[in-house]
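Sync notes, pocket subgroup
Present: LS, DG
LS reminded everyone that the earlier model was apo-only. Rerun requested with 2'-O-acetyl adenosine-5-diphosphoribose included. Inputs:
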Amino acid sequence: MKKLVFLTGAGVSAESGIKTFRDSDGLWENYNVEEVASIDGWYRNPRLMVQFYNERRRQLKDAQPNEAHRIIGELESDFDVTVVTQNVDNLHERGGSTDVIHLHGELTKVCSERGKKCVEDIGYREFEYGERAADGQLLRPFIVWFGEEVPLLSKAAEVIEHADILVIIGTSLNVYPAAGLLYYAPSNCPIYLIDPKEVQPVTRRIEFIRATATEGMRILKEKLLTCK
Ligand code: OAD
């Protein structure tokens, strides 16, 4: 089976009603990224961060995977699929994907403030600032914030190095190191990019499908199945 790798961002979940970050009504229009998505923000105002991620978790509970998530899941019948996602939602898994690398963490998990140990699955439960992890340290969201290392980066790079086909969906490619991952794809690996808007120039040869994630995946599915 060919190795098919997806590199996804907020746009793949947009049609499930989850806001992207940098679009005109995106999350970073209403929140200060430094306050709610950086490690400095956590040290300055952890209560605000807990509240922000509780709110995101509450929204996720009511969101459903869309057709793009489901097509990606179904492609496991014909390809060896890995999804590398910047998203912290669980819609890829709920759409049927079984091998998902969450570069930026997971909303439904919390961990110890020190060293991000004692990872705990809390589902959609809200947690309060002051709750303790099994090691006695404060619990925090299991999210990779600006200013923190990306622990799964080298695992993701290795997967992309072995890709036969790479598909990028719904990411503005603004945030590094995730945005640099596409350069790990072998030189003979076709790269497709699905996005309804122009994405900042990338120097690799890419076939651009200007469409939403669901429209784009419908089109691409047919192409992929002819070259499996
Ligand atoms: P962005 O908000 O930067 O980019 C979203 C992309 O999705 C844009 O290129 C949109 O044009 C596209 N888009 C919008 N609607 C779409 C649809 N229906 N179908 C397909 N694409 C659509 O989000 P990311 O690139 O994912 O990190 O952001 C990367 C990281 O920045 C996030 O993981 C998050 C954020 O700060 C952290 O918080 C650490």
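DG: The helical segments are 27-30, 33-36, 39-44, 46-62, 67-74, 91-94, 153-161, 213-226.
LS: The longest helix spans residues 46-62.
Action: DG to write up.
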